[in-house]
Amino acid sequence: MELTGEALDWLGRPVSCRSCPHEAMHRDGRCRKGKTCVRDRRARRVERFFIDHPELSGQYLDHPYFEVRAIAAKYVDLFHLPALLADPEPEVRAMAALRLPASRVAALAHDPDRRVRIAVASRLSGKALLDMLADEDYYVRLVTVRRLPPELLPAAMADEEPEVRRWVARRLPGNRLIDMAFDTDPLVRQEVAERLEPRRLALFADDADLRVRFTAAERIPVEGLIGFLGDADPLIRETVTRRLAAREE
Fold first, then answer.
1. What is the largest CA-CA distance in the chain?
2. pTM summary value
């Protein structure tokens, strides 16, 4: 919930409607100090102003407060956006990257700020997107593997970040899942066990992680349960017993 109270500008000074270029709009009720105001330091109030008056957003692309520029970039027409790709503030560049055609933002794939590269990864496709698997930031790579066509995901199977590899396991073509069955991270192996062809799940019978073995024991064909009968965990033994009993009913 937005706090009410004194309306302050981005420098912490009280907002003055008298000195505002939109004072006439205030008189007409088209903006309201403390609620819908482009001079307020609260982003929500600034955004309300541009929602109501997007035609004015182009006047604020050089505002000294980066948050105003970033919000204005969200509502300005596309013709104003290319210039913002060189803005000193990452949030402004990221907003421009999210709105411009992908062909115009590819150069920002090597932007020094991760927020910009994340925005770029959400726009690119093909080889340009595939190349972002080499990014140093794990979240950029995560966005990339979420968007790549499944047939290109083997390129990320050995990513150093387990969360990235988990997403690879979720989307990898079924015929390649076996290649990740012995991943060092148990949650990656569990993702594999969730999707791997059931008849191949016996390979997880001796897995070191309970979650992986349990997932396999629930999905493997009944005739393959013999490999789980002597499991050290009672929950898995109970699952095996339950499934075998259900077959005999």
1. 84
2. 0.88
